[in-house]
């Protein structure tokens, strides 16, 4: 279409969409089981043909012809307070029987939260990208563990971009980005197994097959503005869930940026290298001792009344108190021990993954041993035992862990600007408790 001034205006391409408005009493539940049903529906309506996808060639629309729809948009708006539950299960033994135990992450979100998803219906030269983004306002998340606290944030933005190439078994890229503002995260060692159970329930239960293997990478970015990362540092791995009389070590600051990649690019690799990069700005290390701790009053008194001086005997100002704090407030008994203007922590972890056990004996027997087992009936009865038979007769007491190659972890901490530290004896003790927990 040409305007009177001579400019040409192209009409936007048609878009199919679905708008959902959620009002009072909204409860959204999702999890691995629901995701498997979604996968079955997608496979039913869009079955995989394992063929190279045809590139869409855009042709200017001609009056009277039907225009090509290029994407399908889904938008969900929350107009009142709502709850979001992520449900998953794990197998446990109870009275000698296996049972499914249901676990959950429960979130309360406020009005204004939304979810958007764009499903492209056309393919370009390098494939297509599925986009998911949204925001939770005033999110309050808890877990089904006895220690319920998990996450509180004023805003939590999320973005997921999934790039699918035009060839079905070429490398895929999953980019996940989470941005939180004024966030408080409670870290418990039990959360490691808790989220590991969620991942195992969500992952595919089909044994890996080389003919259907698709390489992909997950790129994570987790960024928080004005954050509190709270850990429990009780002795003997003990947690008080009833009265909350726990010792804490917290990391508070203005910026937390975590980036790492999970590479699933090789089929059953011998080793996998993971790299984590953490950047922090204006980070404080804070300590809290419950009133039952004998050092609580002493450390609190030292923090409030100690007179700090510099080399020239000039009074030194204590750590600034003009910071955002929600949980780690100085008025509640917290003590700031270390202030770092800027730091960078790099962690590289090389580990040896354990391949999943497949049907016996194919998955556990290499080709030479498999040939030996197949030819054994036609050979002499007195033959040497195969290595596989020797391994089967090996008891746990006879196994030597030093016979296998160890994993390797490299940690590099860089503090580029002058920092201030108040070293209390209880800080070292809490770090030891944090390590063994």
UniProtKB/TrEMBL annotation:
Positions of the Bridge-like lipid transfer protein family member 1 N-terminal domain: 13-435
Cellular component GO terms, alphabetical: presynapse
GO biological process: synaptic vesicle endocytosis
Alphabetical list of InterPro entries matching this protein: BLTP1, BLTP1_N
Pfam families: BLTP1_N (PF20413)
PANTHER family, A to Z: BRIDGE-LIKE LIPID TRANSFER PROTEIN FAMILY MEMBER 1, TRANSMEMBRANE PROTEIN KIAA1109
Name this polypeptide is given: Bridge-like lipid transfer protein family member 1 N-terminal domain-containing protein
């Amino acid at each position: 279409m040409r305007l009177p001034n001579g400019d040409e205006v192209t009409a936007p391409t048609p878009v199919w969409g679905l708008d959902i408005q959620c009002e009072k009493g909204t409860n959204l539940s999702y999890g691995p089981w629901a995701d498997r049903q979604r996968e079955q529906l997608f496979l039913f309506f869009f079955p995989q043909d394992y063929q190279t996808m045809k590139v869409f060639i855009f042709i200017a629309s001609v009056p009277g012809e039907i225009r090509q729809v290029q994407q399908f948009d889904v938008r969900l708006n929350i107009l009142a307070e709502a709850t979001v539950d992520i449900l998953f299960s794990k197998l446990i033994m109870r009275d000698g029987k296996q049972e499914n135990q249901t676990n959950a992450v429960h979130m309360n979100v406020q009005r204004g939260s939304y979810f958007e998803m764009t499903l492209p219906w056309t393919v370009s030269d390098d494939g297509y990208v599925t986009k998911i983004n949204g925001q939770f306002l005033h999110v309050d998340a808890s877990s089904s563990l006895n220690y319920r606290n998990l996450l509180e944030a004023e805003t939590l933005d999320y973005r997921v971009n999934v790039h699918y190439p035009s060839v079905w078994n070429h490398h895929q890229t999953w980019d996940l980005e989470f941005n939180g503002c004024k966030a408080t995260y409670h870290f418990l060692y039990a959360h490691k197994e808790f989220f590991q159970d969620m991942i195992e329930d969500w992952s595919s239960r089909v044994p890996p097959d080389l003919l259907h293997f698709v390489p992909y990478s997950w790129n994570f970015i987790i960024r928080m503005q004005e954050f509190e990362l709270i850990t429990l540092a009780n002795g003997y791995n003990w947690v008080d869930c009833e009265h909350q009389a726990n010792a804490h070590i917290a990391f508070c600051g203005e910026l937390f940026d975590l980036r790492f990649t999970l590479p699933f690019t090789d089929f059953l690799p011998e080793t996998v290298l993971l790299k984590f990069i953490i950047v922090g700005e204006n980070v404080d290390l804070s300590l809290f001792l419950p009133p039952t701790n004998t050092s609580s009053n002493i450390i609190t008194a030292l923090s409030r009344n100690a007179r700090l001086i510099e080399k020239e005997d000039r009074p030194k100002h204590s750590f600034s108190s003009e910071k955002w704090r929600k949980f780690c407030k100085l008025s509640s008994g917290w003590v700031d021990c270390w202030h770092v203007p800027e730091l960078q922590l790099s962690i590289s972890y090389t580990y040896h993954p354990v391949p999943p056990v497949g049907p016996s004996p194919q998955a556990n027997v290499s080709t030479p041993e498999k040939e030996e087992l197949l030819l054994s009936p036609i050979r002499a009865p007195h033959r040497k035992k195969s290595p596989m038979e020797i391994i089967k007769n090996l008891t746990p007491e006879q196994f030597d862990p030093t016979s296998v190659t160890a994993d390797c972890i490299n940690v590099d901490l860089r503090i580029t600007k002058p920092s201030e530290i108040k070293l209390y004896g209880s800080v070292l003790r809490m770090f030891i408790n944090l390590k063994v927990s």
